[in-house]
Write a structure and sequence with these properties.
Elements lengths: L23 H13 L14 H22 L9 H17 L6 H20 L8 H23 L1 H4 L17 H20 L5 H18 L2 H16 L6 H20 L1 H9 L4 H5 L4 H10 L4 H6 L7 E2 L2 E2 L3 H30 L4 H16 L11 H12 L21
Antiparallel strand pairs: 1-2
Helix pairs in contact: 1-2, 1-5, 2-4, 3-4, 3-15, 5-7, 7-8, 7-9, 7-16, 9-16, 15-16, 16-17
């Protein structure tokens, strides 16, 4: 069967499970979960989009995803998952901390959203089989999102690169911030490169996704996504060095070419990372450190230390927190920090104990990316793309994947490399 290029080139995985094992509607539900986490704030769009309308679309997507998952899994057959179990405990803790309405009715609404979000993930665990079905749905959906960003850049460059974001690329079709676009681009670029490395897609298909994604990433000037992509790929390839000659060759070439490129383009890279900021502004992480210091110095009750103040919009005193751990500390207290650290540690330990394979490498990439991004972006404690990335990692680490590391690099029968 001939391979298609582009998004369609990310082919089904016949070697892991029969094509009918995972219903197509499960991928639709996953795409709707992604739509729900896009948010409703960002740059001005070409067609003015009231926030109430965008919120209605995102919440409607979440409820539709839940209904689809429930219809597909009407017998409520779920797969045990330590990641989702700890995430469910975090949900319970969030409801308890939000019940006193200290943060207003919005806290309970966010708890409701997180409840539906986690419930949908539980329903979809029935098809978590260690295969790449949800990985491909992840890549396809974010590729469509990035395509809308590219269209916005062509149609309205002024809206796509507004002065309020320092000329960084934003969403002009759907309101997306530069860090969001950078995150989506970094994640799908990394996953697609790993699929190409494992011969799960053609080089033409990989190029059609990776090159545009990296181009958009550069236009966003997002340091977090860039470092997350580099760190994630480095750790993923290191996890395969002992068992894959192909991994050793690719890693050696990458280190060599990357080192030379870094020396030659040192000045340009430094300018790109600084984004025209002063040394003081750069050292304070674009003002984040001031918000963090104020948050940590604020007086809190014993209950707030333990359980937090309830789910918020991830801001403090009107300014974004932009740190997952401090956002969790503020909203869910030390209990929340322990639970999030628990499910991250669980994923890391399981990934280390699994035999080398392409699935494990993809999971390690996603876990590493989320860990590195947690320092300057919030999202690990509430419904967000980061929880979806980790859910993909959890689905890849399910026992029963019938492939060793070297087998993972052999194309499925009937497909071409």
């Amino acid at each position: 069967m001939a391979a298609h290029t582009g998004i369609a080139g990310i082919r089904g995985d016949a070697a892991v499970a029969p094509a009918s094992a995972t219903p197509k509607w499960a991928a639709v539900a996953w795409a709707l979960l992604i739509l729900n986490t896009l948010g409703s704030t960002g740059a001005k769009t070409v067609i003015p989009l009231p926030r109430s309308v965008s919120q209605l679309v995102t919440m409607g997507a979440l409820m539709t995803a839940f209904v689809i998952a429930l219809v597909l899994n009407k017998h409520l057959r779920i797969r045990p998952s330590a990641y989702l179990l700890l995430l469910t405990l975090l949900l319970v803790s969030s409801i308890l901390s939000s019940a006193d309405l200290q943060e207003g009715a919005g806290a309970l609404f966010r708890c409701f959203r997180l409840t539906v979000f986690v419930s949908t993930l539980w329903l979809l665990t029935r098809w978590w089989d260690g295969g790449f079905t949800f990985v491909r749905a992840h890549i396809r959906t974010y590729a469509v999102v990035l395509a809308s960003v590219a269209i916005g850049l062509v149609v309205s460059p002024g809206n796509a690169m507004p002065e309020e974001y320092g000329g960084r690329l934003s969403g002009a079709i759907w309101p997306l911030t530069p860090p969001q676009i950078g995150q989506y681009a970094g994640v799908i670029a990394g996953l697609t490169l790993l699929l190409w490395f494992g011969r799960r897609t053609t080089w033409r298909s990989a190029l059609s996704i990776v090159v545009p994604a990296l181009g958009l990433l550069l236009l966003t000037h997002t340091r977090t996504a860039t470092l997350g992509l580099v760190a994630g790929l480095a750790v993923a390839f290191l996890s395969m060095l002992l068992t894959s000659a192909r991994a050793r060759k690719v890693f050696a070439w990458t280190v060599g070419v990357g080192g030379v490129t870094g020396v030659v383009l040192a000045g340009a890279l430094q300018a790109w990372f600084l984004r025209g900021q002063s040394a003081d502004n750069f050292s304070s992480l674009t003002g984040r450190a001031k918000v963090w210091d104020a948050l940590l110095e604020a007086p809190r009750t014993t209950s707030e230390y333990i359980f937090g103040v309830g789910l918020t919009d991830k801001s403090y005193d009107g300014l974004p927190i932009d740190n997952s751990w401090l956002a969790i500390y503020h909203e869910q207290g030390f209990v929340g920090i322990a639970l999030v650290a628990g499910f991250l540690l669980t994923l890391v330990v399981v990934a280390v104990l699994r035999p080398p394979s392409l699935a494990r490498a993809c999971a390690i990439f996603l876990i590493t990316y989320c860990l590195s991004a947690s320092y300057t972006e919030a999202g690990l404690g509430d419904a967000s793309p980061y929880l979806l990335h980790l859910a993909i990692a959890a689905s890849l680490l399910v026992r029963g994947t019938p492939q060793s590391d070297e087998q993972a690099f052999i194309p499925a029968k009937g497909t071409s490399a």
